[in-house]
Design brief:
The structure is a single chain. With about 850 residues, the protein is of the alpha/beta class. It folds into six domains: about 100 residues, MutS, DNA mismatch repair protein, domain I (3-Layer(aba) Sandwich); about 130 residues, MutS, connector domain (Nucleotidyltransferase, domain 5); about 140 residues, MutS, DNA mismatch repair protein, Chain A, domain 3, CATH 1.10.1420; about 100 residues, MutS, DNA mismatch repair protein, Chain A, domain 3, CATH 1.10.1420.10; about 210 residues, P-loop containing nucleotide triphosphate hydrolases (Rossmann fold); about 90 residues, no CATH class. The strands form five sheets. Strands 13-23-24-25-21-26-27 form a seven-stranded mixed sheet, sandwiched between helices. The longest helix has about 35 residues. It is elongated and about 130 Å long.
């Protein structure tokens, strides 16, 4: 066993308890890390790795960071998914007997971050927990420690629903039982990219029972206990700002699974992984951090209650009607601090005087906000002012106690106003008068000694002193001055009178600073009592901010108030894609109608690539989501049902995490949609079946359409390149064909991006290749090949008759068997064999869906056919 120094043994003992964390071990003015922590931290933080003697023969790896600048280093580690245990000295080193006592005072993890610099002000920072009660029943708890928000949801339809629910929120860390199956743990890490933590304890102590008072079921209480015990174990401080846990009634919100949220790019784009280019990027006109977070929550959970949705419309209408009043309101809201996160910092005890001054300035704006709301003619806007508490008592407390520009730290004094506390005023008076007395003493000594260069100074070692240059020492009277320090060119003295005043001045200053700190801590405790009212105020202000934001974006982008119906009819006239039209700033976006009445459940959309089919489909879903969060929508007129769920299969990216092919992902997402959708749902299916062979894909696409039509009855938009499917309108009463209009002009295709009734005539695949600027030689060759294909197909159709149909319907195995048999044909039947082989080549040509291929795929197929032909 290695023999270490007592300090290193202390480190190892603490580290053994926090093995999955970086242990920041306080040594003087630094946090030090040792052994593997030091090696990993030096790599992740890009700091120097060194070593030290720890008592063993070999030196110990070590690296360190200054404690006063640790926040940025901690932020870097936490953003990378690591945990950091802060180990402080908990006794005065001067009074320690042996090694200074140290303890971990806080565990900082991705889900428990509190410092403002580590948080995105416009996004919640959720810590989640999962408790499994069976293979089908799970309970998820959410807590944003920075705001105190706590909610809980019961999932009763399996693990897939758990993943979709978690995917809908910005979860940074998930607390689980160690017994949660490993394949579930692996999926959480790989699909959601979160940090996992473990907690077994689920019992809730009496002091926290108020947090579970509204939870109706024991399962929810047990699940919340796991979360609460983890927070207590990691934070080791007051949790007074936590709000009582609220059950999320999932049936009250539109269901958006993880595929739909990703494919529709509601809050971030697939490629950029950022807000820009998402729906949130377009509609976010909030001006407070609280409002931005609330908007994101509304967007993640659109409403199902028609009355609640229409109530939001009424408020938005009222805001739109009075532009100048709304702009004045926005200006007042801009000055309001993040009251939610401030409440958390007050409870945690890490709020400073500048934070409280910002709180005071925020409260100063509340009366003006209330007054502005009452000036609107809309009664629905005026009602927003009901119940807003301006917290006048808290404002007065802060205004009377704190100076307007306090220092950043709370242990240096200069925080509390004169006149707030009598004892503090006495100390300050003694300190100020004492310094005045020092200045007067200096003038007096200069006159009595006639030494103009004499001065009185101060340092921490000797206190106050009288300094005289050596050239003037002969002018000093004997017996009055006591030598204190000798310098090269001067001597420093003290007098009994000076020493007495020094004691009074320093005592007054020291006690003044101590008393100010105590008064600030007391003030902070008084503010803590206002946390519930501050949280209620934050909730009201954030709601006002989101609704005025809806009005602002609706007016700026010419959105229209939709009307909601109960008859499942969809009527959107001149609808636009809210994101694409903002990207196309030149106003060239082409609006389109969407009409799906009670007689049409399925729109079968055909048309060439790049013509706008996917954009059309997405804009229908985004319009529905915008309508159900209470925002106006991008169109001239809209009548919509309230959709309970939206399912999408758009895009063909492979699922690299699970190793599934594009086609498998396509089938799984299609299955998820058709097995969970109801007649109140919206389904978007884009190019289903393209991941397999032509006939397989066409058969599956038709079967899916028929199943939705006969069994699901959901409003469905289905885009396809299989033109054969357009005949389904003859057999399916509620299917309607529409296509994206395109026209040829001087040998080129012009995409008009207009949706019209009926099926598309052509796919224009070669024209799309030309738009993609493939080599001209390739384009010309593809055009000739296409002409040959079309000519051959026509000729063959005329001569082959039913026999060719039989050949064309043969399985791949049958065709391979035919080729193998042809090897044994005798020379006397060469002509017959050649004819038969030509038939087979024609059959294979007929099976090729050239319009669906990329130019390179087409060239590869032609090369294979050419090789077969040359063998003949």
């Amino acid at each position: 066993m290695a023999k270490y120094t007592p300090m290193m043994e202390q480190y190892l003992k603490i580290k053994a308890v926090y093995q999955d964390c970086f242990l920041f071990f306080r040594l003087g003015d630094f946090y030090e890390m040792f052994f593997d922590d030091a090696i990993a931290a030096s790599r992740e933080l890009e700091i120097t790795l060194t070593s030290r003697d720890g008592g063993d023969k070999e030196r110990i790896p070590m690296c360190g960071i200054p404690y006063h600048s640790s926040e940025n280093y901690i932020k870097t580690l936490v953003e990378k998914g690591y945990k950091v245990a802060i180990c402080e000295q908990v006794e005065d080193p001067k009074q320690a007997k042996g090694v200074v006592k140290r303890e971990v005072v806080q565990l900082i993890t991705p889900g428990t971050v509190m410092e403002g610099g580590m948080l995105d002000e416009k996004e919640n920072n959720y810590l989640a927990s999962i408790t499994d009660f069976s293979e089908q029943i799970f309970v998820i708890t959410y807590t944003d420690l920075s705001t105190g928000e706590t909610s809980i949801a019961m999932i009763e339809n399996g693990w897939g629903a758990v993943l979709s629910e978690l995917f809908n929120r910005p979860v940074k860390e998930i607390v689980i039982s160690p017994e949660l199956p490993e394949h579930y743990q692996l999926e959480l890490q790989e699909r959601l990219q979160v940090t996992l933590s473990f907690q077994n304890e689920t019992e809730i102590t009496d002091e926290f029972h108020y947090l579970i008072a509204d939870l109706p079921e024991q399962k929810l209480v047990t699940a919340f206990g796991r979360m609460l015990n983890y927070i207590q174990a990691t934070q080791k401080r007051s949790l007074d700002h936590l709000k009582p846990a609220q059950k999320i009634e999932l049936h009250q919100f539109m269901s958006l699974d993880m595929y739909s949220k990703r494919n529709l790019e509601l809050t971030e784009t697939i490629l950029r992984k950022g807000k820009q280019g998402s729906l949130l990027w377009v509609i976010d006109q909030t001006v407070t951090a609280m409002g931005a977070r609330k908007l994101k929550k509304w967007l993640e959970r659109p409403l199902l209650n028609r009355r609640s949705i229409e109530q939001r419309y009424k408020v938005v209408d009222g805001f739109i009607e009075q532009f100048f009043e709304r702009e004045n309101l926005r200006e007042q809201l801009k000055a309001i601090y993040d009251l939610e996160r401030l409440s958390g910092r007050v409870a945690f005890g890490n709020v400073n005087a500048r934070d409280l001054i910002q709180l005071k300035h925020s409260l100063d704006k509340i009366p003006a906000v209330i007054q502005l709301l009452t000036e609107f003619t809309s009664e629905h806007v005026r009602e927003l002012s009901d119940g807003i508490d301006p917290l006048t008592n808290l404002y007065d407390l802060l205004d009377n106690s704190l100076v307007e520009e306090p220092p950043l730290t709370i242990k240096e004094g200069g925080i509390i106003k004169d006149g707030f506390h009598g004892q503090l005023d006495d100390y300050r008076d003694a300190s100020r008068n004492g310094k005045q007395w020092i200045a007067e003493l200096e003038q007096k000594e200069k006159q009595e000694t006639n030494i103009k260069s004499l001065k009185i100074g101060y340092n921490r070692v000797f206190g106050y002193y009288i300094e005289v240059t050596k050239a003037n020492l002969h002018l000093l009277p004997e017996g009055k001055y006591e030598r204190k320090q000798t310098l090269t060119n001067a001597e420093r003295y003290i007098t009994p009178e000076l020493k007495e005043k020094e004691s009074l001045i320093l005592e007054a200053e020291e006690k003044s600073v101590e008393l100010e700190y105590d008064l600030f801590v007391e003030l902070r405790e008084q503010v803590k009592a206002f946390i519930p009212q501050l949280q209620q105020l934050a909730d009201k202000i954030s709601e006002i901010d989101v609704l005025q934001g809806f009005a602002t974006v609706s007016e700026a982008n010419d959105y229209t108030r939709p009307s909601l119906n109960d008859n499942r009819s969809v009527s959107v006239f001149k609808g636009r894609h809210p994101v694409v039209e903002q990207v196309m700033k030149d106003g060239s976006f082409v609006p389109n109608d969407v009409v799906m009445n009670e007689d049409s459940d399925i729109l079968l959309i055909t048309g060439p690539n790049m013509s706008g089919k996917s954009t059309y489909m997405r804009q229908v879903a985004l319009t529905a989501i915008m309508a159900q969060i209470g925002c106006f929508v991008p169109c001239e007129q809209a009548e919509l049902p309230v959709f309970d769920q939206i399912f999408t299969r758009i895009g063909a990216a492979d699922d690299l995490v699970s190793g599934q092919s594009t086609f498998m992902v396509e089938m799984l997402e299609a299955k998820h949609a058709i097995t969970n959708a109801t007649d109140k749902s919206l389904i978007l299916l884009d190019e289903i079946g393209r991941g397999t062979s032509t006939y397989d894909g066409m058969a599956l696409a038709q079967a899916i359409i028929e199943y939705i039509h006969e069994h699901v009855h959901a409003k469905t938009l289905f885009s396809t390149h299989y033109h054969e499917l357009t005949s389904l309108d003859e057999s399916l009463a509620k299917l309607k064909n529409v296509h994206v209009r395109a026209e040829e002009y001087q040998g080129n295709v012009v995409f008009l991006h207009q949706i019209q009734d009926g099926a598309a005539d052509e796919s224009y695949g070669i024209h799309v290749a030309k738009l993609a600027e493939l080599p001209e030689e390739l384009i010309e060759r593809a055009t000739k090949i296409l002409a040959q294909f079309e000519g051959t197909q026509t000729k063959h159709t005329q001569t082959a008759g039913n026999q060719q149909i039989v050949e064309g319907n043969k399985t791949e195995e049958q065709q391979q068997a035919d080729q193998q048999l042809s090897l044994f044909v005798t020379e006397t039947s060469d002509k017959k064999a050649t004819s038969k082989n030509e038939d087979k080549l024609v059959c294979e040509l007929q099976k090729l869906n050239l319009m669906e291929m990329t130019p390179m795929e087409a060239m590869n197929q032609l090369y294979k056919l050419q090789k077969k032909a040359s063998r003949n």
